[in-house]
Amino acid sequence: MAMTNGSILVVGGEDGSNGKAVPSLEILPATGPAIFCEWLAESDPYNLYPFLAVLPSGGIFVEYWNQARILDPLTFETIRSLPQLPGSVALASSGRTYPFEGTSVLLPQYAPYNDPLIVLICGGSGDNTMIALDNCVSIAPDVPNATWALERMPSKRVMSCMVALPDGTFLILNGAQQGNAGFGLATDPNLNAILYDPRKELGARMTLMANTTIARLYHSEAVLMDDGRVLVTGSDPQDNGIHPEEMRVEVFNPPYILNGGARPSFTLTNGDSFDYDSTISISFTGATPASISLLGAVASTHGNSMGQRTFFPAFSCSGTTCSVTTPPNANVAPPSWYQMFVLDVAGTPSWAKWVRIGGDPAGLGEWPEGEGWTRPGS
Which residue among 10, 227, 375, 378 has its CA within the 20 to 30 Å range from the CA of 317? Predict the structure, then answer.
């Protein structure tokens, strides 16, 4: 996870495949020794690929297995333990991180960013039952006495992916309806895609989309492309040939691609690197933009899209130019590159242009080259 100072927080893991647990966290570039985490040791081996997020309060949200807490960003001590995540009626004790592997996103943040940030986690599997979960849970961690809200999905999902879209909706796809993450541990592929719209009432946010014919099980991914479509790849189940290692890729067209509207178009007029609470100037053609979104650059694996955040910033337009105000600080928007989209009144997005907000305060682009790898950005 990218922290507010630009450093990278690395949490948990194992010493090699299925090796001894490493119940610690550390900072890169290195600033000191790794810090032992009792809560990671206690939840081994159900806490791999934990879900992490910087909160607007400055705390660090972490979800692992069926537990969640908020950490102090300086000491990494626990500020507050959150309620245990619900499973399902039949599977009260369930997990959401590997090997039970659900998927998580942060719901969109809108200027002036006064509403609490909400974390959404979908799918997972029952402890030792291999039965996937059929629900999503959400919470606003910064709210005192916050509790989890539960909403049903149309089908069960484990090892799924969830992709933020430029109009503020999310695409849920891939995975299985039975099993756990790992080689040969899942059956009954979930071929359906779901559109999740957080602007609707809780319990009415999911719409069935198209089916695929390709099973996407262990090691499948989905990421947003600059044209607003979703690239869907992978699957390496190693299940004795029942499902092959998948070399085919697919592209999912969200509804805004199929609505027949002409795409908006815009250009950046004052560079592509910006401070917080500063102005991005754009020039557009056609109708005045109805909304503008910023989506954080992601690195996706095991249902976890690190860096995925969605913002709808304040903007004003005159003639064919608009002034867009960047988020106010690194707690709201950690330093990163963001895909910037202009959308029309129907929600049709432009092609994205990449902008950097918050710079590179940790000097990640200045890391020395190591043996067998090159530093980020080179």
Answer: 227
Q: Is the Cβ–Cβ distance between 362 and 376 less than 8 Å?
A: no
Q: Assign 255 to helix, strand or coil.
A: helix
* Residue the block writes with tokens 């999503």: 136
Distances (CA, A) of 70 to 39, 93, 258, 307: 12, 21, 41, 18
Alpha-carbon span 319 to 321, nearest angstrom:
6
So what's the pLDDT on residue 375? 63
Answer positive or negative: Cα dihedral of 362, 363, 365, 368. negative
Q: What strand order describes the sheet that includes 78-81?
A: 51-54, 60-64, 67-71, 78-81
**Can you tell me whether residue 18 is helix, strand or coil?**
coil
Count of positions (residues) in the chain: 378
Q: What is the mean pLDDT of residues 161-175?
A: 97
Taking the C-alpha atoms of residue 295 and residue 153, their distance in angstroms, rounded to an integer, is 25
For residue 373, give every residue at least 6 positions away whose Cβ sits within 8 Å of its Cβ, in sequence order, or none.
none
d(CA 178, CA 157): 8
Q: Residue 185: CA atoms inside 13 Å, Cβ hemisphere, count?
A: 19
Whole-number average pLDDT of the chain: 94
Return phi, psi of residue 271, to 5°: 95, -170
**The two three-digit tokens of residue 343, written as one number:** 């959308």
Report whether 181 contacts 158 (CB < 8 A). yes
Question: How confident is the model over 328-336, as a mean pLDDT?
Answer: 97
Task: Please tell me whether residue 356 adopts helix, strand or coil conformation.
Answer: strand
pLDDT digits (tens, 9 = 90+) for 73-121: 999 999 999 999 999 877 878 999 999 999 999 999 999 999 999 999 9
CA distance 243 to 183: 11
- In the chain the first and final C-alpha atoms are separated, in Å, by 20
Max Cα–Cα distance, the chain, nearest Å? 62
Phi, psi of 256 (to 5 degrees): -70, -20
